[in-house]
Amino acid sequence: MLSLTSAQLSSFIGIFWWPFFRIMGAFMVMPFLSSSYIPVTVRVLLALTISTLLAPMLPPLPSVDAISIGALFLAIEQLLVGFMLGLFLSIMIHVMTLLGAMMSMQMGLGMAVMNDPANGTSNPILGQWFLLYGTLLFLALDGHLVAIGVLVDSFRLWPIGSGVLDLPLMGLVSRFAWIFASAFMLALPSILAMLMVNITFGVLSRAAPSLNVFALGFPMSMLMGLLCVMLSFSGLPTRYSDICLDALEAMYQFIGG
Question: How does the record classify its membrane topology (predicted)?
């Protein structure tokens, strides 16, 4: 007759349970997988599948009773580690949203706001457009597969039970400054072009005060802005792929890779 002790049962459950929490924490904020369009059942089943495949390759796990307070803290710890790893990619994808917001403000389309039912936010319409484009480009570059590979490597580089406070948390905090710098560098050519348009109409208003500059300048600014958006798509894939590689590299280095 087969008999299992409580220690053996806790060890068996932990092999699948702790990796599941780390992977699920990352799926909560990762691009595309965190969208409300992806059912929670699909995310849970995908996380369970990956944790099951990982079970034979995991390093020795800490012996913790599955129904103890220590097990609860360990589960929260793994959830936080996965959440912080996924946050690198969430920050990366929102570079495109900020890029669209900057260009919308320069074009005079800042008031054109569209609700995003997937994330429960309201963004400028150009921000939504760039966000969709960035998500599709990230998937086309197989960034989601690389991110899952980093998650798998995290169990080797940062084993379960290693804690959270020893992680380089300041590296994660610095990424919030990186998002503004990256978005500004992508939007800089369009901002300069729109600045020249505004300066031109400012000179016209001084040279010909009787000219209705507002009636002429607003449509011209919008047309110039749309031209800048069209031209920015020519070099955007190359620059955004560099941003994706930078975010994935920072995600890997965060766990000591």
Answer: Multi-pass membrane protein
d(CA 46, CA 180): 33
CA distance 176 to 182: 10
Q: Which two tokens stand for residue 70?
A: 């220590």
Structure tokens at 248: 């994935």
Q: Is the dihedral of CA 81, 83, 89, 94 positive or negative?
A: negative
Instruction: State residue 157's pLDDT score.
Output: 85
Residue with tokens 């495949």: 53
Question: Residue 114 carries which DSSP code?
Answer: E
The answer to whether residue 73 scores a pLDDT higher than 60 is: yes
Separation of alpha carbons 236 and 242, rounded Å:
10
CA-to-CA dists, residue 63 to 71, 103, 154, 160, angstroms: 9, 54, 19, 11
- Which residues lie across from 66 on neighbouring strands? none
d(CA 31, CA 88): 10
What does the alpha-carbon distance between residue 20 and residue 41 come to, in Å, rounded to a whole number?
14
CA torsion sign, 99 to 176 to 78 to 156? Answer: positive
Residue-range domain boundaries for the chain: 6-254
Residue of 240, 20, 247, 5 whose CA lies nearest to 132: 240
46 half-sphere exposure, CB direction, 13 A CA radius: 16
Q: Give the whole-angstrom CA distance, residue 48 versus residue 32.
A: 18
Provide the β-strand partners of residue 116.
Answer: 121
The pTM of the full predicted model, rounded to 2 decimals, is 0.80
Contact 95, 183 (CB under 8 A): yes
